[in-house]
Amino acid sequence: MSDSSVQSDPSVCTVRLEESGPEGFVVSVPHTEYMLRLHVKGAVHAAVGKRVRGVISGSAQKFHRASAGGEFIEPVEGHPRIVQGRVRATDVAGNRVLVQAVVPMWVTPAAGQSASDFHAGDFVNFYMESGVSFAPSA
Is the pLDDT reported for residue 6 higher than 50? Predict the structure, then answer.
């Protein structure tokens, strides 16, 4: 995939690899204090300290519509637990929602909710299930 096609895909983010190990890795988000611990899906072909592109995905316990605040992920360091951001797109067939919250991430709604319940522009927050992953781009 060329750099221009990666940049045009709104689900792909660029992060810096800070730690790598058998349990996953830690990435920092450029221009922020975020240090996210994620599980790896696939091979990472980058050395610690280098930037890597990929797609973050996980599952929500339950989406809630929000009316105030900004985009964030809590905690700032560690496994993502609480997320708030704006819906960029929905994949109804795949039952997932692309949320922009510091970084873009595909999120599967909880049982009883559907991606079709949400639309681009909706402001949402939710607790993440354990196991948020990062799939490196080719």
Answer: no
